[in-house]
Amino acid sequence: MTPRPAILVELHRHAYGADPRGHYDNGKPDARGRLLRSVPIGDSSLLSIRARLDKSCRRLSPSPVLRMMRTNISDKLREIAAAIDRGGSAELTRLTVLKKWFGVSSHLSSFAIFIADQASRRKTKTTKEAGDLLLEARTLLADVDVFVPRIPCVAATKLHACLRAFQNEHRKSAWGSLRIIRDQNLFLVECGLHIYLGNRATPSEGYRLAADYCEHYDPRYGNGLNGPSSKRIREIIGFIVAVEAREEQGSKGPSRSCSGRR
After folding, report:
1. Which of 19, 89, 163, 242 is most buried, with most CB under 10 Å away?
2. Rounded distance, CA 134 to CA 136, Å?
3. Which residues contact 153 (CB under 8 A, 6 or more apart)?
4. What DSSP character marks residue 226?
């Protein structure tokens, strides 16, 4: 039986939650205080992602040190994707291998905008108001270099506030005040901007964003890494490889997050 449309409930007092330990379909929130019926992940073109990344990055032979870092992160992610392809699913917490990579602040801010951009481009059925917000997000991020993102602080802050206000429905429960998320793409854009603007910009937040991006509901496995999650993980691998290749070229960008432009 086809699952109902996704309704994600998030614990309000922990807006971006603790480590996810899996989700339940039994009416109770998970460790992050969320109740997730289903999270459909729409298709996107991996070739398109690679094409956009390759415009800003030429492939060069990595130095021994950076090759080691790339193998350590990218290969572990490939193992996760392979496990999904082979066995059907994998534990969501296996994505914690990304935390070490997010220890570099520039990696975290770039990744946050990469995910926000990807989510804004997804083609899924939505309401007119949600569609307008996604269009606004696409417009804001259209010319942004995800490797060295520089977005006007005022515009980014305004959009983040609008996204937060749009999905501001709450429900009381035994576990506290629950925030209900109906549009996962808007939620991902919101979380990406949240990190980019310096709010709780920690490796753990980067991991949670990756988990939210890759997570998928399948009635056979529940909520976790399964089905389309494999493709999402490979998209992240492509992004990481491109970032590291750019670093090998010695490219340096501004250290601050927001652009002074308004």
Report:
1. 163
2. 5
3. 197, 258, 259, 260, 262
4. E
Domain count, the chain: 1
Q: How does pLDDT run across 44-69, given as a tens digit for each residue?
A: 444 455 555 555 444 434 444 444 34
Give the closest residue to 221 by CA, choosing from 11, 95, 36, 10.
Answer: 36
Enclosing domain of residue 238: 43-166+184-250
Q: Which ranges of the chain does DSSP label H, i.e. alpha helix?
A: 46-54, 64-87, 98-101, 105-121, 128-141, 153-166, 184-196, 203-214, 229-248
From the list 85, 111, 119, the residue with the least C-alpha distance to 227 is 85
Cβ atoms within 10 Å of 167's Cβ, excluding its own: 18
Contacts of 130 (CB under 8 A, 6+ apart): 166, 183, 186
Instruction: Kindly state whether residue 16 falls inside one of the protein's structural domains.
Output: no
Cβ 244 vs Cβ 62: under 8 Å = yes
Q: Which of 16, 5, 6 is nearest to 207 (CA)?
A: 16
The 10s digit of each residue's pLDDT in 197-243 is: 987 789 999 999 999 999 999 999 999 999 999 999 999 999 999 99
Q: Are 210 and 107 a contacting pair, CB within 8 Å?
A: no
